[in-house]
Each structure stands twice: as structure tokens, then as C-alpha cells.
Write the C-alpha cells for this entry.
Amino acid sequence: MKSIYIEDDDILQIRLSDKPIIREVSQNWNINISYAEDGTIAKFVFLEALKQGLLPIETSIIT
């Protein structure tokens, strides 16, 4: 998993897979989901991420 925050545009991208993206779907005006050929989610894109309260991101590793 890789996340990228583009501060100038307030965009958060979370890449779950390196699989090629074949389809993108808008869930709302500020949420886009990209799918791989096998139907799995490859990437999320959140517009106005900071304004929507999605940042800062907290992560945990569960073992």
C-alpha cells in the first residue's frame, strides 16, 4: 500500500495494488475508486482530503 498527499490540490491517493487500472468510478463528487481487471480495488482518490478531515492519517500494524 502506498499513499500520496498532493498538498497544493488537497488530494489524497491511496494505492492498494500495482495492478493496472481498467475502470474508475466516482462514488461522490470527492471520492473516486479505481478497479483492476480482476475486480479488486487498486486505488482510492479523495478530493479535498484535509478539508474533509481525512488527514492526518493514523496507521497501525496488527501482528
Remarks:
- The first strand starts at residue 2 and ends at 6.
- Residues 2-47 form one domain.
